[in-house]
Each structure stands twice: as structure tokens, then as C-alpha cells.
Amino acid sequence: MSIPITRPYFGQEEKDALAVPLETGWVVQGPRVQEFEARFRELTGAPHALATTSCTTALHLALQVLGLGGGDEVVIPSFTYVASANVVEQSGGVPVFVDVDLATFNIDPAAIEAAITERTKAIMAVHLFGLVADMAPIVALARRRGVALIEDAACAVGSTLDGQHAGTFGDFGAFSFHARKVITTGEGGMLTVADDDAARRAGIMRSHGAEISDLERHSRGAFALGDHEVVGFNYRMTDLQGALGVVQMGRLAELIRRRQAVAARYDAALATLPGVEIPAVPRGAEHTYQSYVVRIAPEARMARDAVAMALQDRGVATRPGTHAVHLLAYYRRKYGLGEADFPRALDADRTSLSLPIYPTMTVEEHDYVIANLSDLLGEP
Asked: Is 181 an annotated catalytic residue?
């Protein structure tokens, strides 16, 4: 049996939706993107939602709107995907890493305040694997210290904490629609924005710095070109992606329900497996399980890497949860960071294991993964 780490779900509706922009010839940013943005605002309750080419470019837009540069600092967790740090570097800023809560893999609120200096421009909270970070103390800290709050919600479409959707706690939220995410447009992202003027500026920067979009320009008369007040980027989502996004949004509740059902079966089967720590879900959190990530603790019969290789030999794909960015060559060398600087992030880097999870996962596939994990890690 061969079981992938994930498998996106597409049906006839997606095929039919893709045919519309092909038939109309409007394949660039247009009406389907607008509809996708509207549905995303409705889902999240965010005042503004701007579709982008990726979560990374959404994060970059947020930093550009904030005017990051000149060595401004952004506090981020060390255990996250490298894009969280890359956008800070690309903006001329300095990523200031802090440790994580090993139970949730999310940023440790208690570690943030000591990392804030007079150069701190923003805090970036990352909602890993579909679980919203502990936002109440982070929001309070950001407000008290007068710094912006950005949410890297790449994994958190549909995720909530105490009924509030990810990406709406701070000034900006950035989401991903990569193929491994809960809903997908292949690639693609969304930026949620709380402030009206910040949203206006993000919209301008998203489209080369143009004051009006292509869709607006064509509705007014295609000959006219808008002015360009700022240097911008081409971070525009296409209507092909927007068409997929609209249909996937309609499936979101069902996709989440199926992922949660798979996660519940994993929880029941793995909770007593020696050396395996199942995902923590704090009270009030709606975990959407973009990834199902366990921790293979040091006392387990086999180390994480050995487990992963053995599962691969048996046809089961796995991944590390993500990486500790302070261990990656660029950041380690530039900032003189060492393994011991963020011990919980180091532990997560070495022990986290993402198991296969997708909406169409069968009971047979699921049982096969569980049986092999139990064979490898159960009592001899």
C-alpha cells in the first residue's frame, strides 16, 4: 500500500468552475477573485481580504505596508516554516527568534516580551498545523508595547479560538492555499487587514503600485491607465485560482469535518502508544488539522528519523512538522545562532512527525498507518 502525506480534494464542481474563466477569456485577477475575497471576509469576519499569489507574498505585503526596513525587528517563533523569517529579511528587517510551547508547537507568549526592543516593529504569531496560537496575551502585549501584530495563518483556514477566526486578532493575517492546505488553489494566498487605509495601501502595492485594479480599469474604459504612487509588486491571484477558491470555500465545512474525523481516529489509536504525544488542543480552540503532527519523544523505542524511514519503506509518507529556522544555514551563520539558543524549537525540529491526513483517507489507509506505527513503537 502507498499512502501520501496529503491528497487535495477536487470534484466536478472545480472542473466546471475552471471552465468559466477559460470560456470568458478573463483569466487574470477579476470577478472570481472578487467573489473569493468576499467569501473569505464572510468566513473570517475580517473587514478586508485581499487575494495574493501565496501566503509568503501576503506576509511581505503586510510588512511593506508597515514600512519595515532599516534593521527594524520582527519577533517570530523559531519553529516555523522559513518563509516567516524570509519575508522579514527580504524587507530589510531583522527576525528576532523566540522559543515555542512544545505542547502546541506555537509561539510561547511568555518568551516574546524579553525579545522586544526599541527597534521592534511587529510580532509575528504563527498558527502551526491548524491550531491558533494563545492570542490573548500576545494581543495584550502588542497593544501595551505599541507594536504591530501579524498572524502567519498559512495553516489556519477555518481555525478559530473562542469563536474568533485566525487572522483577525491582529493587524494583518496571511493564509495559504498551497496543495497541502485545508482548501487549495494550487498556490495562492489571502491577506486579511483590520484597518481601512492599510488595506487600501496593500491593494495598491499588490498590483505594481497602481491606484486601480485591471478589473476597475476595464470597467471604466480599458484605455486609461491609473497613476502609480508607490513601487509595488505583482502579487495578484488569477481568476483561475479564484474560481477554484470559490468552490473550495463551499466545501470547507465538510473538508474540516473529515480532517477532524481522521484526527480523532489517530488520537484514539495513538494516545497510549509509548513515546508518542498526540496534538494538544487547548480549550476553546477549533483545530482544523492542516497537518496531524505528533511528537516522537526521546523515550520512544525508535527515534523520529528512524520511524520516518521505516514508514517510508512500508509505503507511508511522513514529514517533519516543520523546521527550527535558527538551525538553517543562512540564519545560523548570519546571526551566530546555535542549537541550544531555543531548546524547545530544537526539540520540535528533531521529534515532530506529520502523519498522512486528507479528506478522502479511507479506513483501510488509516488502519495501515496506525498498525505500522504500533508495530514500530509498541511494546516489544
From this structure: yes
